[in-house]
Amino acid sequence: MLSFALRRLLSAVPTLFVLVTLTFFLMRAAPGGPFDGERTLPPQVEAALTREYHLDAPLWRQYLDYLGNLAHGDLGPSFQYEGYRVTELIGDALPVSLALGSAALALSLLLGGVIGAVAALRQGRWIDPLLTHITLIGVSIPNYVIAPLLVLLFAVTLGWLPAGGWHHDRPTDMVLPVIALALPQIAYIARLLRNGLIDALATPYLRTARAKGLPLRLLVLRHAWRPAVLPVISHLGPAAAGLLTGSVVVEQVFGIPGLGRYFVQAALNRDYTLVLGAVLLYGTLIVLFNFVVDLLYGALDPRLRTA
User: Fold this and answer.
1) φ, ψ (nearest 5 deg) of residue 167
2) Using one digit for the tens of pLDDT, what is the confidence trace for 183-216?
3) CA gap 24, 264 in Å, rounded
4) Domains of the chain (ranges plus CATH)?
5) Can you give the pTM of this predicted structure?
6) Contact 282, 245 (CB under 8 A)
7) How far apart are CA 255 and CA 146, in angstroms?
8) Which residues on neighbouring strands pair with residue 77, listed in sequence order?
9) DSSP H helical ranges for the chain
């Protein structure tokens, strides 16, 4: 198991290197620059800023300098937020996005698991197609539609919850953003678990065990759940990374100071270092969660460890 984990972990290093390299050169190839704006800067000021941030150096030198700083844990200064390092900006925004994402992930696993299991175990009855159609709606409606509808219903019309903002001492601020983040994932997890559980229960050895009188509860808990949750685990890698780094749309709609706000503004303003920092964080989380998924796969299916 240890060698299996080490192989998976070592394969993440070239993946992150390629991700950083592609992002670095694609950002530089995009039209515009970090100091282009509606108001044109005087040539002397723009030249001074270019020298200060070493943008006058050859591209290959900028790339090597960035890799050198990155090796020491320095993501560089922000070009738009004067006086701030990228690590400071990400450090301030990450706890907010992590709080929302963790709550949304827990809610997705809980409700998605319950809905998927009920639909699979009641296959052929009225509740199965009902839940299937409800989850289809959840998959089809994107976040940028769900979030304003939640605000309109629960904040504007009913007045039960705040429409936006973020206060650490007011837990109600999290309710609508967490629901908006979780609803699509609840639908995905429910559908994956339903299909996986139905396929597992249809295997010959489980059908034989059920025909011999093994109770359905024991059949699911002892035998069917392992193969049934494998598709859900595969989905959780990128889904968890996306939830934990914050949804751009949801954070913008609810005015939440998370990573989504910085990522959008950095992309619009060509803040090279902040975009690179956000992409690197997101890529690292995807690699990390996929690594955890591989370990879970290896624990649930030992055949993968010897493949």
Assistant:
1) -130, 125
2) 888 988 998 888 888 888 888 877 787 777 777 7
3) 17
4) 86-268 (1.10.3720.10)
5) 0.80
6) yes
7) 15
8) 85
9) 2-10, 12-29, 43-52, 59-71, 86-121, 127-140, 143-150, 175-201, 204-211, 216-219, 225-244, 248-254, 259-269, 272-300
